[in-house]
Amino acid sequence: MVSDESIQPAVYELPLPAELSAKAEIKGSERSLPEPLLAQNALWFCRCRWFVIVALVFYGALGLFPGSTDYFGMRPPGTWPFVTAAVLTLSNFVFLFFARTKTSATRTTLNLWSQIIADLVVLTAVVYFVGNLETNIAFTYLFHIVLSCVFFSRRQSLIVTIVAIGMFTTCVTAEYILRVLPPTSIFAASHHEPEASSAPMVLLLNFFFAIGIWLAVWYLASGLSSMVRQRDFELAETNRRLMAAQKERSRHMLATTHQLKAPFAAIYSNAQLLLQGYCGDLQEQALQVIRRISSRCRRLTAEIQEMLQLANLSSTSQQPLPGTKMVSTELLLWCMSQVEPVAREHGVVFKANIRPAAMVGTEDHFKMLFVNLLSNAVVYSHKNGQVHVSCLRGPSSEPIVTIADDGIGIPANKLPHIFEEHYRTKEAVQHNKESSGLGLSIVKQVAEMYRISIRVESHPGCGTKFELRFPAPDTNLGNNEEGETKWPTS
Question: Which domains does the chain have, with CATH numbers?
Answer without folding.
Answer: 29-243 (no CATH), 320-487 (3.30.565.10)
